[in-house]
Known about the structure:
- The chain is mainly β.
- The chain contains 7 helices and 21 strands.
- The strands form 4 sheets. Strands 1, 4, 15, 16, 17, 18, 19, 20 and 21 form a 9-stranded antiparallel β-sheet that branches. A 7-stranded antiparallel β-sheet has the order 2-3-5-12-7-10-14.
- Strand 15 and strand 16 (254-260) form a beta hairpin.
Amino acid sequence: MSELYPLKFETVLKEKVWGGNALVSRFNKKATGSLHIGESWELSAVTNSQSVISNGFLAGNNIEELIEVYMGDITGESIFEKFGNEFPLLIKFIEAQEDLSIQVHPNDSLAKKRHNAYGKTEMWYILESKKGSKIYTGFKDGVTKEIYEESLSKGRIEDLLNVETVDAGDVFFTPAGRVHAIGAGIVLVEIQQTSDITYRIFDWNRKSSGKEKRELHTELALDAIDFNQSGKNKIRKVPVLNKTENLVNCEFFTTNIISLNKAIGKEYYSNDSFVVYICTEGEFLICWDDNSEKVTKGETVLLPAMIKEVTLKPLNEACLLEVYINSENPV
Length: 331
């Protein structure tokens, strides 16, 4: 069996009523004809949107086919035992020209019961934001189910939400059950469990086809909402050059940020997991054995679990997110 290598994938672009053109013009996504690209799915195991390898001798195979052959060599043995051929994370770039719907995602137990699927805990790393752009995240303190239902009936649900202004570099962690929405004027990276289940609570009375308002899932959402998820939620860490800084560490994923202007070595012997690199600025080389793979702004690369030692070499300067599942956390 041939040796594995850092894997790139064909992106899957999704048109959205709230999308724009920043992902194409500034993050090197290839699209024709549409100025409303809302999402670029970088690494996905979701049915009908599975990522297809774009580089090396495995090009043309999708992520499920890859894991079916290489198993734990791709994902890590413990991760393969739990998830099988399904890659456990979904990585996206998102641009919101308009406010997204106010929504919530179910946790694992509710998603399994209702949809035979995984729940959706996620995080956002803000790449760009226009002045005054906002993230809606969780409730203000003291919101109860009764207060929520009354406000919803009056179409005033946004009055109950914790609202935070954002800048590039801000991070928001959104566990399943936390009500949230991305505000207008924001471009971000989303890292989440492999799930496409969203309960839309309120959509600003927006219409999808010019006539019909978009479907809402208010009853389904009610059981999914955690009313204890309230208060401020912004994480702000200024990267330290050539060091690995942790942003989020939860049972579903760990995300670090690395800003570098010189080569740094990375070793993963103690962690039984794949690693995902997401380049947010500049470009760098992943070097392993006597090989290298160039990664540029907007690209996402999957480092198979069997590769335990690499050197990251910036071409001038670069910034990247490093994502994996921490084997010390139960999955």
